[in-house]
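Let us work through a complete example step by step.
Step 1: write down the sequence.
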Amino acid sequence: MKKNVLSLSIAAMIGGLGFAGAASAGVAYQTAAVASAAGAAAGLTATTATVLQVSPDGIGHNLVVPYYSVQEGNGTLLSLVNTDTKNGKAVKVRFRGAANSDDVFDFSLFLSPGDVWTANVSKDTATGLAQIYVPDNTCSLPRRAVLNATKFKTDRVFGATDAAKAGETLEGYVEIFNMADIPPKVPGATGVADEAAVALIDNALFTAIKHTSAGTNPCGLAASDSALPAAVLKLAADPTLTDITGAVAAAADRTALLNHGLWAPSTGLTGSWTILNIAGASVAWSGNMTAVEARVAAGGAPGLGRVVFSPQKDTTVAATAINSLTSDPLLRNTGVAPSTAIIEAAQYDLPDMSTPYLTAVAITAAGVAAAAPGTTASDAPVLQAKLLTQALAVKNVLNEYVTNSAISAATDWVFSMPTRRYAVGVNYKFAAPATGPSAVFNASAAQQITVGNDVSPYFTAVNTKMGTGGTSGNPTYQACVEPGGAVTAYDQEEATASGEFVVSPGTTKKVVFCGEVSILTFNATSSLQAKIAPKNIDAGFVNGWLNINTAGLANAGLPIVGSSFVKMTGPVVAGKSTNFSLTQPHRFTR
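Step 2: predict the structure and record it as tokens.
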């Protein structure tokens, strides 16, 4: 699973900028307020967020696209908006495969205030790989030209052939998060930031990414890496900090962040997704990205998170630092002392959704309340992942289905579990006694990863197991999660499909969520034509609704987002197609 120079994040863009080969690390810095009056005037206040919550308003610090697909003529459109009209945003975008959340493509964006970034994802017919096309000039690393010329990566996916690996890039989900705000002004003098300065100067990074009245920005206009503004080139290295977590507040560290043009991330990201199928059905499904907001208290105002920046480079992350920055069990070291991880982490692997984002007190409290794991720095990402999973966890998923053959109706349900990877990964580098890919779970600092019990209350060896293949239809390379409760089907009249009046509903057979993005098809129909992790259910009725109990372990629930995707085809009217599609977000109980 060791990566080549180009793997996953397209690090070629800045491969010539130096720093290659040296061990480094990202940051998860909890800021204190800049003490000077100039800092106060610029709004450079402290990290205040103590809780993560799903935002019903669709605006937050982090976003999730539950599903992207370029299978069978599908294409996916993305639109990302910075609703903050004061600050820029340093944003990480990571595409993960549907099977086991393996990273297939990631990059960094630098949105100016009020900016909109758009892209479309399609299948490259020559290679069979997914590819992205970005039409606008929002600042990105790598540059837009590199993004548009690079296909999705297969370095980390499972497959016996190149074609099989390429197929693993065609479906998945997207995680997007604000690594840091980019304020317009910072304290300083003569072009150099200094938190103690009494005056404000222009933030050079803000200037480099800010759109002018012509709709362009210096970074986006750069025709080569060497032509990038100096403030953007500076992002090839981490800020030089005495403490990457901010546990020891230091004025020099805050000045280092400001010299990179970065400060504590605020809310303001929103976005939408659309899946189009022109070739086969001329239909479209769309929805809003799921937004997670870091707040000062449960139900409270949006807060400021930690700066969680890491360069978009292939430089190895220091073994002594990785466990403080991620709970991904394939990236974490495998013992008490730093040792070999299953996958050697590079800077572009960071940050992820488990990188500590809340205040240290809030994260520590999560560990104390659970009595495990401990409160060491290397436990913080495990606890962060637990808190995020808790915010997304649901105990029932309810929605409708339509499979009426008179209108060629087909229904698929998407179940995306965007935090599963931060509790369990799948190791493709198996060795005896394993005979194939195996599940790897997180543990506490005393034992960094384990093949058995783990510390997550949501995913353990009890409810998460490798597929057994054969008649089960569960692929042997995918981790499969048992939802923990009954699956109950209803028709539209609370009667049997035969029309006889009996007490209903009826209970269907057991559902298992294989893959990180699991697709449930109804009555042997399919709207999305998923290939990686589909599972059919015979509901017993042509149309109706379904209730899937997802109580999980100890009634904790499972972190699920998704929708119902319905496709219908009517007769041709006046020479025109009458194709229709519906997107119905899942309803939940918590």
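Step 3: interpret the result. The longest helix spans residues 380-392.
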